Amino acid sequence: MAGQRKASRYVVPVAVAGVAAATIGLVPALAASGDPDLPQITAQQLIEKIAASDTQTLSGTFKIDTDLGLPAFAGLLPSAPGGGSSSADPAEKLTQLVSGSHTLRVAADGPERQKLTLLDGSDEYSLIHNGNDVWAYDSKSNEVFHEKGARDAAPEEKQLPATPKELADEVLKAAGDTTSVTVGGTAKVAGRDAYQLVIKPKQSGSTVESVKIAVDAANGTPLKFTLASVSGGKPVVDAGFTKVDFGKPDAGTFDFKAPKGAKVTEGAAEKGAGKAPEDLNGMFGDLGLGDLGDLEKGGKDAEGGGFGVIGEGWTTIAKLDSGAPAPKTDEAPKEVQGFLDALGDKVSGKFGSGTVFKTKLVNALMTDDGKVYVGAVTPQALVDAANSGK
């Protein structure tokens, strides 16, 4: 368990577009072989099937395509903490997955052993979790990143539904009046029969058109994840298996020995053992998204300055009041200024004036007096929120 928590610093970010994403993907062409004829199933039964799945072993190849509608990130993403001491550090290398098309190989043998390999032409980048060790290797630079250690104190466990039925009830309850959850037919994913769970916002103003998850009809493992935007065009995220095998990978798959001549960088030991649970809050922190508790606190103080939350469901908007005028983009470096200009549109309203920075999924309004409104909502929804004075 300790090794698992230690590795989650890297495995969890990969899970968004990597190890766990390997269980939620599909290249559109894979469905062209014909939809399988499967028994009827309700959305709740399908969610129960997902919850009951106990897939511990798998290996395969998948592709992930991400299109946020952004200009190229090259030269604009920050380096890994510590000044980018190793090109193999996952904190820096895995930022590649936020844009473009990538092919990955994945293998898993329970919670203690996982391996992900990012293929880039003749170059490979591998991330390996084996027990209490996390290894990363960049073949292009011949550099290795290694981290070993564990937290002494076990975190408190989150209270989760005890049965698949309870989990399904919680999911559907959370969907409430703002979400439509249906079964949208069947599909063929990497040669396997799958049901398609379709999740859509009922609210207007969201940038999300739909989320589709293909679920293995035999074992309940999610095999497909496609996130589509109301702006149309390519999906925001379209990741998927081209090959998958649920057999146990060979034990040697997770062995690693630094190649001769490779530069090896040892990661810093984990600090603050036992101070914070490595649960959902830890995951959000590792991803730079703050603490879930902050949202609750902010929601209660949405009208008192600082951080707040406006609305609910798919049209939730986070508000941040910096209390200082917004920085002027014309004072930024030329390459950053061009990037911001490509994203931003000048807007005005009762709130005054500001700039809306756009992507296909998340938009942000920065007012000239230092307030920021951000959410997976349309630019007009942000302007309306700012005009409301909330």
Given helix and strand content, the structural type is: alpha+beta
- From the N-terminal CA to the C-terminal CA, the straight-line distance is 44 Å
The CATH class label of the largest domain is Mainly Beta
CATH architecture of the largest domain: Clam
Short description:
The chain has 390 residues and is of the alpha+beta class. The protein has helices spanning 2-17, 43-52, 90-93, 164-175, 280-286, 292-300, 334-343, 379-388; strands spanning 57-66, 100-109, 113-120, 123-130, 133-138, 143-148, 179-189, 192-201, 208-216, 222-229, 237-245, 263-266, 307-310, 317-321, 344-349, 352-357, 363-367, 371-375.
Would you write up a description of this structure?
20% of the residues lie in helices and 33% in strands. By secondary structure, it is an alpha+beta fold. It folds into two domains: 2-286, outer membrane lipoprotein receptor (LolB), chain A; 292-388, TATA-Binding Protein (2-Layer Sandwich), CATH 3.30.310. A twelve-stranded mixed beta sheet has the order 7-8-9-10-11-1-2-3-4-5-6-12, with helices on one face. Strands 13-14-18-17-16-15 form a six-stranded antiparallel beta sheet. A hairpin with a 2-residue loop joins strand 3 and strand 4.
